[in-house]
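Thread: quick sanity check before group meeting

JM: Hey all, I'm pulling together slides for Thursday and realized we never actually wrote out the predicted structure for the chain we discussed last week. Dropping the sequence here so it's in one place. If anyone has concerns about the input, flag it before I start.
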Amino acid sequence: MLLDIMAMKKILVPVDFSDITTEVLDYAVQIANEEEGSITVLHVASPTPIFPSQDAEPGMIQTYVEEELTREKEELEAITEHIKKQGIEADSILLQGSIIDTIIDEANELHADMIVMGKESHGLLYRTLLGTTSEGVIRRTHVPVLIIPER
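JM (edit): ok, ran it. Output follows.
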C-alpha cells in the first residue's frame, strides 16, 4: 500500500534587494503556504575587490565591505522575520562569490525542491553579451525554477 505523504517543499529564494524582491518573496510565501514548505532567502554579495583602484586605501575598502555586508545581513534578517510572522519556516544565508554558481551550489546543498527568483530587466546589449542571472541558473540547474518577471 502506498502512502500519500506530502513532503515539505524547500524553496530557495535568491534576492538582490531590487524593486522586484518583494514580489518574488510574495510568490515564494504563497507557494510555501500551499505546499507546507520552508523558505531559505539567499543573497550573494559581491566578492571583495582585491585591487579596486590606485587611490583607494585598503582600510577604507575593508570598512566599506564590512558595513555593506552588515547592512545586507540585517536586511536578510528582516525579510526572514517577516516570512516567519506569516507562519512559514524561514532562514537566510549571506554569501560572497559568483552569483550563478553560488545559487546553484546552495540549491544543491539545501536539496531545494524549487528556486523562486526575479528576472532582471537589462538592455539587449547586456543580455546578448552577458546573459542574465536567471537565464544562467535555468541553464545550469536541475532544480525547477520559477521566474517572476519585473512589471
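AS: nice. The chain has one domain: 16-149. Helices lie at 21-35, 58-84, 99-110, 124-130, 133-140.
JM: adding both to the slides.
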